[in-house]
Specification:
The protein is mostly helical. The chain has nine helices and no strands.
């Protein structure tokens, strides 16, 4: 695994052998990063917690499938994105828990950007997170979201970025 530290590799090996504490330590190492992905995609704290729980359970049940030729964080991010895309809450937005929750953000640029991303329409939010933050290609984003033409992804990106900049100003 190219980007994994010796410690991460050790934890993965121990977790594969059944060490619950090693698996939980792995989860702790990546949980805040995964939370950031899901909250940006969902804009909903309650839903984020539900999805993260599913991610952790899926990862625990499929830990033996972790390959040593990629990074553990990439594997977890892929699971996280898939769980978001497959979530039944996205099939029917009326099912979203905790609608109307207030978010408190500090007055710094990153918080303002996150808040602007969360206010985007769902499709634009997904495109921004998948393309700009997780570095999927426009072809991959197009396939994941069934947008059709990868050029449509680029159009959505351009409009979403413009909206974020307007919101921050």
């Amino acid at each position: 695994m190219s980007e994994n530290t010796k410690y991460t590799i050790y934890l993965i090996e121990q977790a594969k052998r059944g060490s619950y504490s090693s698996f939980m330590r792995l989860v702790e190492l990546y949980l805040s990063e995964l939370y950031g992905i899901v909250i940006r995609l969902t804009s909903n704290d309650s839903l984020t917690k539900i999805i993260l729980e599913k991610v952790i359970i899926f990862a625990a049940e499929n830990l033996q499938q972790v390959r040593m030729d990629g990074t553990f964080s990439s594997w977890l991010k892929a699971i996280t994105v898939r769980q978001c895309l497959n979530s039944h809450y996205f099939a029917n937005p009326a099912n979203l828990p905790g609608e109307g929750e207030e978010y408190i953000f500090s007055k710094n640029l990153f918080a303002e950007m996150d808040f602007a991303i969360m206010r985007l329409p769902r499709e634009a939010r997904y495109v921004i997170v998948l393309y700009d933050l997780l570095k999927y290609s426009s072809n991959e984003v197009s396939d994941m979201l069934s947008i059709g033409n990868p050029e449509n992804v680029k159009i959505i990106l351009k409009l979403a970025r413009k909206k974020i900049i307007e919101d921050i100003r």
